[in-house]
Design a protein that fits this description.
Length: 184
């Protein structure tokens, strides 16, 4: 069973564990809180004092397009960024934290704050369909990534031939393994 998450940079399995809570904001999304610190509120990163009810958010986005009609994050392999249209934008907004708190494992990806949505700090979604399977996997193998052991695994690694589960992986490790398998 998922009991809590660690502060960033602290290995899973160490004694210092702070439970994570998902708090609903007035933007309709859940924001991850460790102790008194909201991970998505940019102004509060690393500060020890508790945040005010208003959480300042900031997100940087970039894009590239060859024709101005179809956009992607980066140019395709072999294409230099100068060969298309590049752009970026920083968006800032404020969110008011409400009183509704839930277990972060019960928050769907689309309901999570976009600033930390892809972060490995969020546990895997444990909803009604896959939830029992994910809970059993965590109980049997632990929540840590089986490759790097440094943070919570959010992907289930399996052998595509035998379909046997090898364990949870972080997003970065998952992508690394996919790219290496593709290059073989």
């Amino acid at each position: 069973m998922f009991l809590g998450m660690v502060f960033p940079g602290v290995l899973i399995g160490c004694a210092a564990v702070t439970p994570a809570i998902a708090v609903l904001g007035d933007d309709g999304r859940y924001h991850l809180r460790l102790g008194t610190r909201y991970l998505c509120a940019r102004a509060w990163r690393g500060l020890k004092k508790p945040p005010s009810p208003v959480l300042p958010h900031e997100q940087w986005c970039k894009w590239w397009s060859a024709d101005g009609q179809h956009y992607r994050v980066n140019p395709p392999p072999g294409i230099r960024p100068e060969e298309g249209l590049c752009g970026s934008r920083t968006v800032r907004w404020a969110v008011l934290a409400l009183d509704s708190e839930v277990d972060p494992a019960l928050v769907r990806r689309r309901e999570r704050c976009p600033v930390e949505q892809d972060s490995a700090r969020w546990p895997p979604f444990q909803g009604p369909v896959l939830g029992p399977i994910i809970k059993a996997l965590i109980a049997a193998l632990g929540p840590a990534c089986h490759a790097c052991h440094s943070t919570i695994g959010v992907f289930v690694d399996h052998d595509p031939v035998s379909l046997q589960v090898r364990g949870p992986l972080t997003e970065l490790t998952h992508v690394f393994l996919q790219v290496n398998a593709f290059l073989r």
